[in-house]
Amino acid sequence: MDELTLYTYCKSSAAYRVRIALNLKGLTYHPVYISLIKEGGENFRPEYRAINPQAMVPTLQTGKHTLTQSTAIVEYLEEEFPDPPLLPDNAAARAQARSYAQMFACDIHPINNLRVLDYLVKHFDADETAKLQWHQHWMHEGFGAIETKLASNALTGRFCVGDTPTIADVFLVPQVYNAKRYHCKLDAYPNIRRINDHCLELEAFIDAAPEQQADFTA
């Protein structure tokens, strides 16, 4: 197998997802750290844009291919390295796991990520209070729907879908981390908190945490 190279940033939710997935699969990789804040963002440098034209992380290089977008990367890892699986063994459960993942990745994260928050500051004069309110509003909108779904779904177990981690949990943990960074109160989401706690008992999740990365700064 060719060496896997992951372009990553410690606090990027999207890169965090891929680190978790790689760890759950037991795959070793070479991390290349791309700061999204240092000197205006190392991701905007021409040499990185040549690798990822979107100037975003993560990027995974497999030796033959350069892959971008965390959902696509996780799905690639699932297809290329199917054991242990991150998707359940029946169609309905797989759809549920993907649904949760997309709720985190498509409905919450994109409107709360760094470039959106920076745009609010630059073009709409949002101060720190307004930026925080924006982030918390969309976090609560998304978490409320996910919590309702978890509470009512027969497939919910120790984790989002069943009793082993799936792609849903891979996407849940980074978003909870983000929520805590922006001081979102999580009292109203007992299932999300419970599942997050179960995940953080596992080495694969622990080792992928931002604080465990070589580029972490408080």
In a few lines, what is going on in this structure?
With 218 residues, the protein is an alpha+beta fold. It has helices spanning 13-24, 46-49, 70-80, 91-108, 114-124, 128-152, 167-181, 190-199, 203-208; strands spanning 4-8, 29-33, 59-61, 66-68. It has 2 domains: 4-84, Glutaredoxin, CATH 3.40.30; 91-205, Glutathione S-transferase Yfyf (Class Pi), Chain A, domain 2, CATH 1.20.1050.10.
Features:
218 residues; alpha+beta; Glutathione S-transferase Yfyf (Class Pi), Chain A, domain 2; 2 domains; four-stranded mixed beta sheet; 51% helix
Question: How do the helices and strands line up, and which of them pair or pack?
Answer:
Elements: E1 4-8, H1 13-24, E2 29-33, H2 46-49, E3 59-61, E4 66-68, H3 70-80, H4 91-108, H5 114-124, H6 128-152, H7 167-181, H8 190-199, H9 203-208
Parallel strand pairs: 1-2
Antiparallel strand pairs: 1-3, 3-4
Helix pairs in contact: 1-3, 1-7, 4-6, 4-7, 7-8
Question: Your description of this structure?
Answer:
The protein has nine helices and four strands. By secondary structure, the chain is α+β, with helices and mostly antiparallel strands. It folds into two domains: 4-84, Glutaredoxin, CATH 3.40.30; 91-205, Up-down Bundle (Glutathione S-transferase Yfyf (Class Pi), Chain A, domain 2), CATH 1.20.1050. Strand 1, helix 1 and strand 2 (29-33) form a beta-alpha-beta unit. Helix 4 runs antiparallel to helix 6 (128-152). The protein is globular, with a radius of gyration of 17 Å. The model has no long low-confidence stretch (mean pLDDT 94).
